[in-house]
Records
---
Amino acid sequence: MADPFEVRMRFTSQLQHLNASVNSSQKAAHYALKYRDMDEDLHSCILEQLERNSMNNRANIMYFIEHLCDMAQRENHTNFVRMMQKDILMVVDAVAPSDGSGAANVKVVRRVLQGLQQKGILLPDTVVEIEGCLKERDIVAEHAVLSPIEANGQREQAQNQTNPTNKINGMSRPDKRQIEQRIEEDRERHKRLRESIWAVGDGVNDDQEFDRLWDEVSDIGEDDYIAAEEDATERRQALGMV
């Protein structure tokens, strides 16, 4: 039997070194499921690292949580899923705190919550409730607190002189390396998102996209027939003018 302390330390190290790659999240998720008999202890590691790490790393852990819950659900180990369902509000508060320090992570939280809902891990009502809280926290433009450049250089210099603790509006300001890392990781995630949009089906579930679009289309009403008739009349008039 593996030493619980060693398992915890290795899992903690993996969480601390997560990045934007899928392999990084999957590796940590596989490790957690390998030692599923220590699931409660590993779950506490996740919550602990969400409180201790930078906002960049908290975003990476948020994406990891989606991978972990998805894999745990497929392997029928519901303890990880159940504990995450119970503590999801605590997770959101850590990744996108109410003080605005994690405003750049609000979109991350939304994406993961939508993914968890689509996988049946979170109830729609739960996601709606959390979304109500996120609206109040989405008050800063994306990466505003991560931006290394102020609109006015003199203003930045004055702030540095009057604010030696390197804080903006009471929030710790990331260093240049963290800013560059976050930009690069967001670029990698957006690239993967575009790739997934254009992914070719496997031939088995090719109708899923059609069914989804069909469900999103509203029923044909009287206004649609009137608009079609007007378009047809305009086309006839245009052809007659040629």
Note: Residues 129 and 183 are 29 Å apart (CA to CA).
---
Amino acid sequence: MATDPTDPTPAMSDPQTPKPRPPPSPVTTTYLFLYNFISTILWFSVLGRVLLLLPLAGHKRVYGGVGAFTRNTQTLAALEIFHSLFGVVRAPLATTVMQLSSRLLLVWGVVWMFERETAWRWAYCSMLVAWSVTEVIRYCYFACQVGGRVPGWLKWLR
């Protein structure tokens, strides 16, 4: 049976046609919602701590008040490698590894290893504010997306 070249719908046996993904299981959906919701709360906590510590204690004390919490919060994101590896999410593994490793390198390989030189600088505070704002928006967006409804303002921010 010949296919019609003017037909915009691809033939079922066309190897170029990607197979549709099956819908995620309720367990996967619940897990992803909880993961993204908890990550939103954790990064919002980082942002809140930094914004409270800056005026109350000064930039030189931000690391003491939020450094370990930030390292642990960022390390939790290593789960995203497994999400990609096992197909829980559609994110490409290489991209996920690169993005995560750059963040882990900064919190563990630079700030933690060279704490005396880096943690007391304004750059550390600005890095945390930029990261946490970005991550709050990103994880909140994903939680809403998994939940089935993303508000327009959040789409705009994303």
Note: The first helix runs from residue 26 to 57.
---
Amino acid sequence: MLLIKSVLVLCSAVAVLAQRHAYAGADAAASAALFFGEDTTESIDPLKIFKDPINHATAVSSILAFSAETTGFKPSEKSAESLTETLPEFMKRISAFPAFILVSSSESGGVQLKDHTTAEEFENKIGNLFGGDHSHKIAFKLAELLPLDLDYEEATRLKNWILGLVVIDKPKGSDKVSIQLVSMELSIAFDKEPKTCSGPTPTPEAYIPEQAVKILVSKFDVNSSFLTGYAESLVEKLPIVDVERMIALLTSPARNGPEPEDLLSLWASQQKVFSF
């Protein structure tokens, strides 16, 4: 058992080193979080959040939020440039948490993207890399993080990006919780003077140039016995943060998804259906 634990710790350390290496030379970063499955949390009692496995989706969310707070990783608040300093420490903190047991770590080192790859093409290209039932949803979320809204000054200053994603999965009908940490390196270029043969001159825009993209995925199982056995100690140190709030804390402002105004308009239009 000691040997197995040592191997797991070593593998976790290797995964962290690989992730830290991936951030070398990055100019900016963007982050998001996803939850799949069923959040069965039924208690607001902090002790029961850790003591009872039915509440462990919230327990894991609390650990992730605390890890972000203690490492200064605040993608919902801070600039993309500053995240390159805190994202590695956040990933390291998660990987080192005793209840998160590394089960696999893999790197896709040569995902080839053509020049001027669109967000949709990017999503389709990486859509099968993550395994399981949610691979394309993960790819869609990463595509939303693509910094294709940069202006010329930003694109020339922030060429090399890291996209990070935290995925929690708690299958329906099960108390088992797992975590995926996904990170990828990506370069951005800018058409300062895009050319056109006819018609109006197109607006200059950031784009994805031809490149081979590296994607690192580390998967962890959550040891529910640890959370249950150390519930009292965890409650003393960690504030309780639910899944929805955790996702908001770990998510950078949307770049390729609907604008807030569009979402508000959509919501307002839907209310008419329920009016009396």
Note: Residues 1-18, 257-276 have pLDDT under 50 and may be disordered.
